[in-house]
Design brief:
This protein folds into 2 domains: 97 residues, no CATH class; 110 residues, DD-peptidase/beta-lactamase superfamily (Beta-lactamase, 3-Layer(aba) Sandwich), CATH 3.40.710.10. Strand 5 and strand 6 form a beta hairpin. It is globular and about 50 Å long. 38% of the residues lie in helices and 14% in strands. The protein has a 3-stranded antiparallel β-sheet with strand order 7-8-9, sandwiched between helices. A two-stranded antiparallel sheet has the order 1-2. It is of the alpha+beta class.
């Protein structure tokens, strides 16, 4: 809860601001809201765990891997930069800073089945699998795949990335539409805000 001073996400921010490490903070977390596999809930630190596993499996940093496998093949307009902890470890749960046009470029690559300029950057079967609603989210609520959100009532190939304070990469594959948004909306958690943004994206897509 970003609005709760004592929430884990805000405690994490204070640890990092004072030079602490994300890995230590993560491994020190012991409390569970449910037994593994019993209930789904979005928790940012889970994404950092994925980063820890990836670094451990490859022996490489996330920026190096992302640059080699994704960023360099796509040819972004501007070099991205990362928020890091006190030891220089890049955030994986957030903090990747790119221009709106380059976020849109990433969305377009996914919209094209993982291809960019004739090159297969992300395997097409992974694109399709990762953007399906596979998490056991509550009935009638937004769905979740592998790091992608699937809006309620989504058509085939409709999904999005969604970040704190109103960041979006919205993809409507059938209509060949990608919408990228960089925002600083303090009211992003207010009731209906996300639903309104999705409705706007759909109206834009349907009008083209």
């Amino acid at each position: 809860d970003y609005l709760d001073y004592d929430s884990d996400i805000n405690r994490m921010g204070r640890v990092v601001a004072l030079g602490g490490t994300l890995d230590d903070f993560t491994t020190d977390l012991k409390a569970r809201f449910a037994e593994p596999g019993a209930e789904w809930k979005y928790v940012s630190i889970d994404t950092h765990v994925l980063g820890m596993v990836t670094r451990g499996a490859t022996g490489r940093s996330i920026p190096d891997l992302l640059s080699e496998k994704i960023i360099a093949p796509m040819g972004l307009e501007y070099e991205p930069y990362y928020v890091t902890d006190g030891t220089g470890t890049a955030f994986v749960l957030g903090g990747l800073n790119m221009t709106t046009r380059d976020y849109a470029r990433f969305g377009q690559m996914y919209q094209q089945g993982g291809r960019w300029n004739g090159r297969q950057i992300v395997p097409q079967d992974w694109v399709e699998e990762s953007t399906r609603p596979s998490a056991p989210t509550a009935p009638g609520r937004i769905g979740y795949g592998y790091q992608w959100w699937i809006p309620q009532g989504a058509a085939e190939g409709e999904y999005m990335a969604r970040g704190v304070y109103g960041q979006y990469i919205y993809v409507d594959t059938a209509r060949n539409v990608v919408i990228a948004v960089n925002s600083a909306d303090r009211g992003f958690r207010e009731p209906g805000v996300s639903e309104s943004n999705i409705a706007i994206f759909r109206e834009i897509a349907e009008s083209l």
